[in-house]
Amino acid sequence: MTLIGLLQILILAALVALVTPFLGGYMAKVFQGQRVFLSPVIRPVERVLYKLGGVDEEREQSWLGYLAAVMLFTLVGILVTYLILRIQNHLPLNPDHQGPVGGYLSFNTAVSFATNTNWQNYGGETTMSYLSQMLALATHNFMSAATGIAIAVAVIRGFARHSTRNLGNFWVDATRATLYVLLPISIVLALVYVAQGVPQTFGGSVTAHTLDGALQVIARGPVASQEAIKILGTNGGGFFNTNSAHPFENPSPLTNTLQMVSILSIPFGLTWAFGRMVGNVKQGIAIAAAMALVVVVGIFIVAPVEKIGNPAFTRLGLDQSSTGTSPGGNMEGKEVRFGPILSGTFATVTTDTSTGAVDSFHDSFTPLGGLVPLVNIELGEITPGGVGSGLYGMLVFAVLAVFIAGLMVGRTPEYLGKKIQGYEVKMAALAILILPLSILGFSAVAAVIPQGTSAILNHGPHGLSEILYAFSSQTANNGSAFAGLSTNTPFYNVTGALAMFIGRFLFIAPVLAMAGSLAAKRRVPVTAGTFPTDTALFSGLLVGVVIIVGALTFFPALSLGPVAEHLRMIAGQLSS
Questions:
Q1: Which residues share a beta bridge with 209?
Q2: pTM above 0.90?
Q3: Domain-by-domain residue ranges, the chain?
Q4: What three-state secondary structure class fits 80?
């Protein structure tokens, strides 16, 4: 780790720490219906939308009603997106004359963007019209992010309220998340990106004459507007095939840092909002501290490993040292303007959240460098996770942590004044089991049938890692990939869409059920035997539970993939 690299990481941490309390406090006010500085402008628009949609903002929903609203909203969005992609060649704003998207790919893409995954089995600039990019995909970036925030707010109310069966109103929460949080910040970010050179145009592709006399077609379009919400909403789907490694999406180290801050801002901000809404900011800080610890450890594994470089290249006589024209280290699949430190940091940030945006290609990382993003995803992307999904995922582990603490001292566990009993533990366990069942189940099938193995471009342990990463990323709604897997096939399009749907909605059902049960409970007084959950001890216990559950679940599979690949690499180094 170089001094400059360390300073870059410290600047990122400082910016996130600065944004968190301000954004968190603002969101707490928004979702508690309090007046904020944007209320004079947005409140009239909000009222009109409720009137047009027939929504009574005073009428709240039980957890079942909330879940039904989420599912209806999502299923309609999937259908509309599917239809737009299938007939995009007959719709306007298609200057490059893109044809209709195939049925399997349209289905996969519609589910992908509706679940906040943004897994892309296509190249955006060669497949999607401008209308599809904006109306079908960028719109979903807002809707899926707003859905995640709304669910998190409903779960917070489950802990904050007592003696009620209501968790709020999904339509109100999603509307406020969009109008007060996502849209204003996205407008500002889009303007900043335009100022930094990111295109925002309806003009079609342009043709350039290269220095050697050849012709090059350069794609462009309304990129800045999609880039802003892609990053802020932890969506991750790029306008271009190379995502945030493309200079039109991420032109400089400044925009690269801004993107990482944007990715982390709402997930960490929601921990502060959680503390404010339950009446104890320290509770939110304890959750945030546990999340931050895992992020920091991941960064300080990936960045130095990639900086050291690949010993296989050293054996070939390739120089991986830092020079005036090269940052050094493992530069395969990385942009020179970012280098291994920023690339490794971005990879950790994007997989600790459900973003999936990449400024380098994880498939080209060293085995240990690629192991960390894979583990981040398989932990459930709760450190800090996606917008909303990270917080309610971590709260599931918090319930499990206090349950374990209660077992150790022989006392009924309590969390935020609520007794954690059998029903809550069962719902938490069910939610936690959903992810490994989907990840390992689909990966096992893909690893043994021809429809799965025929797509592998790199056989051996790395090929298994590519399959495991694909279903981990899709089930955990991340969207990044080990790109050495040809997944635009009927098998991977269908199984991938199922994995994304399972990872999103089979997870939130037990989480909302748990929140509904907690909201109905009465508060119990704090006693000398109550385990404090706003301390560093609880943060450490929470991290321990997350790591142990992940290690016990996925270590056998990881040992056959990236761990085996690392050992083979070291063996080759020793034998040389």
A1: 215
A2: yes
A3: 25-252
A4: helix
